[in-house]
Amino acid sequence: MTNPAPESIAPSLALLEQLAHEAISTLPAPFREPATHILLRIEDFPADEMVEELGLNDPFELTGLYEGIPLTEKSTADQMTRPDVIWLFRRPILDEWAERGNVSIGEMVAHVVIHELAHHFGWSDEDIAHIDPWWE
The whole model's pTM is what? Predict the structure, then answer.
């Protein structure tokens, strides 16, 4: 049995998580530390309930999801019942990455992470474009 070349193996859940943490570590200073308080969850696919709740027909339509209360809506009086979470979905991310064919897997993961962080921080399209040039 031969071992496949490393570049022919689909990136693992662990690699996507590492790339997500790297993307967070490169955020502008005011956002870097607060972003580390958001739980990252990496799964192959979104749960059926997520797909249904969002009215999607296909789990491949969802590369990431922010679950939580955006900072623009939080109050100091709010009781925290669970942490904010950014979900990344490996198989949809890999499909979009393969379809694009012109970006690295790191760039793809960073793009999804930044998009989900935008929901948390309440960033405008202009704010996102300063951090993620893909948004332009």
Answer: 0.88
